Amino acid sequence: MQMTKFLSWSNPPDLLKRFVNTRFSGTFCVDGTDIVVQSNDATVFEHFPPTETDLRLNLRTFRWKLVYDPEGPSEIVSPIVITYGSVSVANLGLACLFGIDSERGELVAFLGVRGGDVAFRETVLPLLLELTTKALRAPANSRFAPQLVPADNAHE
Fold first, then answer.
1. How far apart are CA 17 and CA 136, in angstroms?
2. SS3 letters for 11-69?
3. d(Cα 47, Cα 55) in Å, to the nearest integer?
4. What pLDDT does 57 receive?
5. pTM recorded for the entire structure
6. Is residue 18 domain-resident?
7. Would residue 80 count as lying in a domain?
8. Is the pLDDT of residue 156 over 60?
9. Total structural domains in the chain?
10. At a CB cut-off of 8 Å and minimum separation 6, what does 20 contact?
11. Residue 106 belongs to what domain range?
C-alpha cells in the first residue's frame, strides 16, 4: 500500500494573498478626503490624481489596499458591481476583484494587472475612483443597519 504524503502546514501557501507585504504607500486627495494607499506594486502611484491641498488639513481618511498578483490572470472584462448597504464588490474578471466599505472607509483590491499597465490606467483606476467618490458622498442615514424582526412578529 502506497502512503500519501501530507502537506506541511508549518508554511502553507497563501492562495488568497493575505500576507503580501504592501510596502509602498502614498496619499492623494478626493473630495476633501485623504486616500491612503498601500500596495506591493510601486507603479500604481504613477497615475494617481495630483493633490492640490495640504493633506494634513483633511479630517477624513479613506484607505486603499491594492495587492498585485504577478501570477494571476491579466485579462480585464467589463465590470460588474454589486452593492448591498455600505459594501460594494466589483469584479472585472479573474484579473481584478475588489471590495469597498463606505462605513469603514476601506477598499481592498486584488489585481492581475500592474499599475503601469494601460488596463489599470484606463479601466481599474477610474472605477476605483468612481466607487470611492460614491462612498464618500453616501448620506450617513443610508448606511446599512440590519433590521431584526422580533420573534413575536415573525409570522405576521
1. 27
2. CCCCCCCCCCCCCEEEEEEECCEEEEEEECCHHHHHHCCCCCCCHHHCCEEEEEEEEEC
3. 18
4. 62
5. 0.75
6. no
7. yes
8. no
9. 1
10. 14, 40, 67
11. 24-138
Q: Residue 146 falls within a domain, yes or no?
A: no
> Residue 123 corresponds to which amino acid?
T
Going by the DSSP 8-state scheme, the letter that residue 133 receives in this structure is: H
DSSP 122: I
Which cell numbers in the block locate residue 82? 454589486
In contact, 39 and 67? CB cutoff 8 Å = yes
Grid cell listed for 59: 479630517
The 3-state DSSP class for residue 114 equals coil
Please name the amino acid found at residue 77. Answer: V
CB 99 within 8 A of CB 108: yes
Residue listed under C-alpha cell 483633511: 58
Q: Is the pLDDT of residue 37 over 80?
A: yes
Which backbone phi and psi does 64 adopt, to 5 degrees? Answer: -115, 135
Residue 35's φ and ψ, nearest 5 degrees, are -100, 110
Pick the closest to residue 34 from 86, 104, 105, 84 (CA basis): 105
CA angle 135, 56, 46 (to 5 degrees): 65
